[in-house]
Amino acid sequence: MEGKHIVVGIGSGIAAYKIPELIRLLRKRGAEVKVTTTRHALEFVTDLTLQTLSGHKVYSDVFAAINDHSTEHISLPDWADAMIVAPATHDVICKMAAGIADDALTTTLAAMRKPVVIAPAMNDKMYAGEALQEALATLASRQNVEVLDCAEGFLACGTNGRGRMQEPETLLEAVEAALTPKDWLGRRVLVTAGPTHEAIDPVRYISNHSSGKMGIALAQALLRHGADVMLVMGPTAEQWTPPVYHPAMQGVGSLRRMDVVSAQEMYEAATAAWKEADTAILAAAVADMTPATVADHKMKKGQDLTDTIALRESPDIARFMGVDKRADQCLVGFALETDNEQQNALKKLEAKHLDFIVMNSLREQGAGFGTDTNSVTIYTKEGESHRLPLASKSDIAEGILSAIHG
Ligand code: C5P
Question: Mutate which of 286, 330, 361, 404 to test ligand 1's pocket (most atoms within 8 Å of Cβ)?
Fold first, then answer.
């Protein structure tokens, strides 16, 4: 998002109160933001708030003397790399579909040829309305428009239903996706992520420090590039709500998430998904050992716990998948080593029949478990290597995708 120009178009709906947060998130990611609104949006969020957070005057009145140019509705689309309409109200959506342009926001939209994200928000009965759904389908068929669905939940009118705007964090991801080439469209990619928990008794388990952040960053990047992602996720504290698109939308990625706990559960979910996948990226830190038996009661302090807990090896998912690999499938593993890093990584590449192995460097500061950054070296089975120096896990995910894209 660094240096990108984003126009935020605000409709007159109560969800407008969340847009200052979206502007802040966009700017935190390095984007420049300008705001345009309908006539009444400023009843919900103040001009001063929007101007302060965006750092620019707000374009809300076509005839106001403060406008930089007399044709702001043309200069804004020229300036923009992308636009998001949030909240996109019933009125704005139907006007946009019909080509009506009668205020600052809709005249700007009329001249907009760059990617536009539509984030609807309204009462659930309005959202289910025929005219509105027809308008959304029309917009979804336009080449530069990506239409989000409404989320379900509590609505400002006091009811529960489908009508909520997706949250600012998710809208940020949707804008990033709209700016990203869909060069993974139609590819089905399995990602394993996070740790596994191996139960000792109903209370305790064996695990490791994996946070799941790298796997989530990979799933996010794949989704941005248009892939159909199957994410098999171990227990994680990481929150991720990906953008959900309107059912009429084509040409965008999709996500199926399967949450699992143990190595055995991850094995079952991953090997089933592998049959449908053309690529698998195994970023999960699967526990190597699992208790041979799980006590059905909480083991008591003392004898029970100081006795040796018998362990057995958990299934090596990567190895099973490597053996089963079809000629058209690409298998990518991860390695995290504390010593003889390169040698051990290359051994695993061969033993597990991987096409690529991504070696994490635990020694480097800022890389490895729980951090938001990483640095890796990617080895190919042909003996090549690419080093990706310390960067955000999101940038590292992009680097991994370009290295394995072929
Ligand atoms: O744990 P190890 O270093 O062998 O992990 C190398 C690769 O194998 C990783 O991609 C990891 O996700 C995968 N793996 C697995 N099942 C296991 C152990 C590791 O899929 N039981």
Answer: 286
Look at ligand 1, atom 5, and give the residue with the nearest C-alpha.
335
Supply φ then ψ for residue 187, to 5 degrees: -90, 140
Helix axes 130-140, 90-98, angle to 10 degrees: 50
Distance 348 CA to ligand 1 centre (A): 9
Boundaries of domain holding 375: 188-405
- Looking at 178, 211, 242, the residue that finishes a domain is 178
- Catalytic-residue membership of 157: yes
pLDDT at residue 39 above 70? yes
Summarize the confidence of residues 130-142 as an average pLDDT.
98
The Cα–Cα gap between 171 and 168 comes to 5
What total of structural domains would you count in the chain? 2
Quote the ligand 1 centre to 287 CA distance (angstroms): 8
Q: Is the pLDDT of residue 368 over 90?
A: no
Q: Are residues 85 and 220 in the same domain?
A: no
E strand or H helix at 94: helix 90-98
Q: Of 108, 143, 178, at which residue does a domain stop?
A: 178
Judge whether 183 lies within some domain.
no
Q: What is the value of pTM for the model shown?
A: 0.93
Please give the distance, rounded to the nearest whole angstrom, from the Cα atom of residue 399 to the centre of ligand 1: 21
- Identify whether residues 198 and 141 lie together within a single domain: no
Could you tell me the pLDDT band of residue 65, with boundaries at 50, 70 and 90? low
Residue 99 structure tokens: 């080509």
